[in-house]
Design brief:
By secondary structure, the protein is mostly helical. It has one domain (2-29, 37-134). 88% of the residues lie in helices and 0% in strands. The protein is elongated and about 80 Å long. The protein starts with a helix and ends with a helix. The chain crosses the membrane at residues 12-32, 44-65, 111-133. Keywords: Membrane, Transmembrane, Transmembrane helix.
Length: 138
Amino acid sequence: MSSQLEEYAMKSELYVVALTFSILAISIQFPAETSDVCIGRLQALGWVFLVVSGIAGITLLRNVSRDYNQYLTKRRLEDIMNGARLDDVSKKEFRRVYSEESKNLSRNKRFWWPVQGYCLAVGLLFLATARILNSPIY
């Protein structure tokens, strides 16, 4: 069950990163043409936030391979520890190193996930606001 959820999380992460860069490309390709400086700045800020969101998503995707390798390493070493007779010092050292590495990865995720989501939302908000302000009022 857990591996299936991780697989869905990975697929959704890939989808969000692709969607972010697609929106960025389309909004740059078809900007709101205006002479108003405020609208131009809103568009530019939207683009910047979308770029930051995309970079945060790529960073999260890079960590997926580290997470997987860490999981495999833990399983292999647990099998070795169960099969072989290791002294208590080796077991304690393994647990210490593994727990430190786990903390580093989870800290990295806790930082980048909100950055990606908030920057995507703010970028879309700025782009939508620029389009709305640029539309003529009849």
